């Protein structure tokens, strides 16, 4: 391919793919459960996506990128331990008490403190869900994909997506209710 | 419909994934079942809490920079090019030992231009973000005003051929007014509104009992912009730019459905895409 063609292709890729970086990073963070690994996975995702951009036929860029991201994460876990996803209950910053790095830029006026604590609680509850329910919930609630798109990303039938969402939300609701009951 | 079927389907209902027939079926069941009524309410509340928690994370700037740098043959975006143009030019070097000097001065100037460009991008990014936030606030206010009795529409119809000509002469632009009833969004009318001190077309659609206001104004920039969604005071706002228009959709339907609205709407602007 000519240099002009490459530049044009990269430009098109940037315009189509980079707006979804936050979505890719968010899912990466929930899957990898720490910032450094999430950053590496997100970067690898974009490089892989660029390599396969010629074969990209749509329709939607975001689910395509998230599919690649999830494959990157799966490959990384496979490389580490031959296990599909990290063991549950493992120490990590998402589920831990440390303020996550990505929260730093927002100043917190007094009135927002309570709200932020609620946000944190919800984040940790989702992060603590078993992997298959966690990813379904993140794809639906945060990445805002449709059931069909989630099914494509996970490579499962829509019915499976529905039952995972139902089960995942059931768990989340139980834990959230407990949390609210124990909150001052 | 029994409770174990309903247990799964109430989620599809909450997520706006059911067609009208199935939605009615499950609503009928829920209406006769105290257990499922309670579950539906609880999961709706949970979903509101999850959405309100605003869990989307912003990628660290360093990561964005790393990825940008890793993309080959990175062209300089317009903004950065403008910033680079104002960076000091290398001082004219004497012809003797020209190569060495140019190498040194050129390297220095490049560094200056680069950091200038990065700073400009950051500042512009922050300003864009502020502006986006401010307009989103105005859009939600306009949406709330429109829900007051008698304020929703100036021209009322389900026929695009009534709404579209109505805007003629009232605006500098002719907004697209597609019919989307077949896709689940009923056109109910239009009106003139005011966003950020400028007159905008408001095209009103309905999804079940929910009103969607779509504000259309001449685009502030020429580059298309991917949809950006945010939540203000419990309303979902989606902003995107294409075909020379800025579009702001606002509604109390969930973000996924609003996104679906955007996709269906946008599909009609690209005849070749055929909505798929």
Q: What would you say the CATH architecture of the domain at 132-273 in chain B is?
A: 3-Layer(aba) Sandwich
CATH superfamily of the largest domain in chain A: RNA polymerase sigma factor, region 2, helix turn helix motif
Q: What percent of the residues of chain B sit in helical stretches (DSSP H or I)? A: 40-55%
CATH topology of the largest domain in chain A: Rna Polymerase Sigma Factor, Chain: A
The gross shape of chain A turns out to be: globular
What is the number of beta strands of chain A?
0
The greatest interface between two protein chains, and residues involved on each side, is:
A-B, 49 and 45 residues
SSE order of chain B: HHHHHHEHEEEEEEH
Derived from helix and strand composition plus strand pairing, the structural class of chain B reads: alpha+beta
In the predicted model, the low-confidence regions of chain B spanning at least 5 consecutive residues are: 74-127
Helical segment tally of chain A? 8
Strand content of chain B: 15-25%
| Class from secondary-structure proportions of chain A | mainly alpha
Largest sheet of chain B: 7 strands, antiparallel
Characterize the largest beta sheet of chain A: strand count, sense, and whether it forms a barrel: none
Task: Give descriptors for this structure.
heterodimer, A: about 180 residues, mainly alpha, Rna Polymerase Sigma Factor, Chain: A, Arc Repressor Mutant, subunit A, 2 domains, 8 helices, about 0% strand, B: about 280 residues, alpha+beta, Protein Transport Mog1p, Chain A, 7-stranded antiparallel sheet
Question: TL;DR of this structure?
Answer:
The complex is a heterodimer of chains A (184) and B (276). Chain A is built from 8 helices and no strands.
Could you characterize what this model shows?
Chain A is an all-alpha fold and 184 residues long. Chain A has two domains: 85 residues, RNA polymerase sigma factor, region 2, helix turn helix motif (Rna Polymerase Sigma Factor, Chain: A, Orthogonal Bundle); 76 residues, Arc Repressor Mutant, subunit A (Orthogonal Bundle), CATH 1.10.10. Chain A has eight helices and no strands. The radius of gyration of chain A is 18 Å and the shape is globular. The N and C termini of chain A lie far apart (63 Å). In chain B, a hairpin with a 2-residue loop joins β3 and β4. About 20% of the residues of chain B have low confidence. With 276 residues, chain B is of the alpha+beta class. Helix content of chain B is 48%, strand content 20%. Among the domains of chain B are: 48 residues, no CATH class; 142 residues, Protein Transport Mog1p, Chain A (3-Layer(aba) Sandwich), CATH 3.40.1000. Chain B has a seven-stranded antiparallel β-sheet with strand order 1-2-3-4-7-6-5, with helices on both faces.
């Amino acid at each position: 391919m000519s240099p002009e063609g490459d530049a044009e292709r990269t430009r098109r890729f940037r315009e189509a793919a980079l707006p979804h970086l936050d979505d890719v990073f968010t899912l990466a963070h929930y899957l990898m459960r720490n910032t450094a690994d999430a950053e590496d996975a997100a970067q690898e995702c974009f490089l892989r996506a660029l390599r396969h951009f010629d074969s990209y036929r749509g329709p939607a860029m975001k689910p395509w990128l998230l599919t690649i991201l999830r494959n990157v994460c799966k490959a990384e876990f496979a490389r580490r331990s031959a296990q599909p996803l990290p063991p549950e209950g493992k120490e990590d910053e998402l589920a831990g008490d440390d303020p996550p790095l990505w929260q730093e830029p927002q100043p917190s006026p007094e009135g927002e403190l309570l709200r932020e604590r609620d946000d944190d609680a919800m984040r940790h509850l989702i992060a603590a869900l078993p992997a298959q329910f966690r990813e379904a919930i993140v794809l639906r609630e945060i990445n805002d994909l449709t059931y069909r798109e989630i099914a494509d990303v996970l490579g499962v039938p829509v019915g499976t997506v529905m039952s995972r969402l139902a089960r995942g939300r059931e768990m989340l609701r139980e834990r959230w209710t407990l949390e609210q009951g124990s909150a001052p | 419909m029994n409770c174990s079927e309903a247990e799964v389907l109430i989620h599809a209902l909450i997520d706006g994934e059911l067609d009208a027939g199935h939605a009615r079926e499950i609503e009928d069941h829920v209406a006769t079942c105290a257990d499922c009524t309670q579950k539906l309410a609880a999961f709706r509340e949970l979903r509101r809490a999850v959405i309100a928690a605003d869990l989307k994370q912003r990628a660290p700037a360093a990561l964005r920079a790393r990825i940008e740098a890793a993309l080959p043959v990175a062209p300089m975006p317009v903004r950065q090019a403008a910033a680079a143009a104002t960076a000091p030019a290398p001082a004219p070097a004497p012809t003797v030992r020209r190569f060495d000097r140019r190498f040194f001065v050129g390297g220095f100037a490049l560094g200056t231009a680069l950091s200038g460009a990065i700073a400009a991008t950051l500042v512009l990014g922050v300003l864009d973000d502020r502006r986006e936030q401010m307009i989103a606030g105005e859009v939600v206010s306009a949406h709330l005003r429109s829900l007051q009795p008698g304020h929703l529409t100036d021209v009322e119809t389900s026929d695009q051929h009534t709404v579209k000509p109505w805007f003629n002469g009232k605006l500098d632009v002719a907004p697209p007014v597609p019919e989307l009833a077949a896709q689940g969004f009923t056109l109910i009318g239009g009106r003139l509104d005011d966003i950020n001190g400028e007159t905008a077309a408001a095209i009103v659609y309905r999804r079940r009992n929910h009103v969607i206001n779509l504000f259309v104004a001449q685009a502030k920039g020429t580059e298309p912009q991917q949809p950006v969604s945010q939540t203000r005071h419990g309303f979902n706002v989606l902003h995107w730019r294409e075909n020379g228009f800025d579009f702001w959709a606002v509604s109390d339907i969930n973000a996924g459905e609003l996104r679906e609205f955007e996709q269906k709407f946008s599909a009609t602007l690209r005849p070749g895409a055929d909505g798929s």
